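Limitations

Structures in this collection are predictions, not experimental determinations, and the ligand pose is part of the prediction. Treat each record accordingly. The example that follows, with nicotinamide-adenine-dinucleotide as the small molecule, is included so readers can see exactly what is and is not provided: the inputs are given verbatim, and the output is the predicted complex.
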Amino acid sequence: MKVLITGVAGFIGSNLLDYLIEHTDWQITGIDNLSTGSEANIAEHKNNKRFTFVNQNCTDVKTLKEFDKVFHLAALPRIQPSFELITEHITANLVNGIHLIEVMIRDNKFPRLIYSGSSAIYGTPEHIPTAENEPVSCLSPYAFQKYEIEKYLELIATRYPIDYVTLRYFNPYGPRSFNPANKFNAYSSVVGIFLNRKKNGQELLITGDGGQKRDFIHVSDLAKANHLASVHPDKLNTAFNIGNGSTLSIVDLAKMISDKYSFIAKREGEADITFADITKAKTILKWLPVYKIEDYIKKETTS
Ligand SMILES: NC(=O)c1ccc[n+]([C@@H]2O[C@H](COP(=O)([O-])OP(=O)(O)OC[C@H]3O[C@@H](n4cnc5c(N)ncnc54)[C@H](O)[C@@H]3O)[C@@H](O)[C@H]2O)c1
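Predicted complex:
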């Protein structure tokens, strides 16, 4: 089996690489333009014969014929910068994915595409926990760009035999979520930011009143969902929520990490709550998250 991971040097891409190296015997090619990712994230696999890294833009990919599966993760996944650097975000979040779809059409070969989507497309949802049929309500250019790819996949599937699975991630945490070299660091996952500030002896800065709630999902559980989606025997052509199926307020998260925290202005464009209904992924993908955020935080704050 030969597979491609785009965005392999990023937070989730590098964890997916770890997972596939450990749980499969696949040949893995990873591409990344290192715009926000880091080669250090994939350094441990540098000499592994099963892994090839290519420093490349997704838009420079000429063919995908050699691959059986394509995991598309490359993106600029930050809500706040997507309001300012709009063209850059359209290129990263929309054009990259469209290019890969076009290459498949040109090749007339359709390896399964596992697309990393986002729960940001639900905005502040009306229904809690939120199922996949929740109305889309994008609060940011980022959310809209992530949704556009989903819609393109649906439309392209009406004309071509494309084979895809969209995984709508809720709020991922885990190793390498905070990359000091990433210019958008200030807007990365709150778990990584809080742990980094704690490590540096700084107080935690909570946006708004901290009452906003998030469904935190460990990155290894996300990687497992990618693996299961890629090997499912049926053509699925649908979207799955990938969250923990629970929710935690930011102030409660902060208290788990440190007793030194204060409050700063709320950020617009961010949901009040995320809370995944994961019944569909449990039923069809036979996926179940196993990690607990309390255990991760305990390990990170005591080691
Ligand atoms: N982290 C989250 O909170 C979150 C939540 C929901 C969905 N997602 C989705 O998961 C995916 C991975 O996110 P992440 O947190 O690992 O982000 P990340 O920024 O850590 O990784 C993204 C990687 O893509 C690379 N990249 C960007 N543009 C590229 C291009 N044109 N060509 C090649 N490589 C390119 C970057 O260098 C980076 O290594 C994204 O699609 C994101 O939208 C992330």
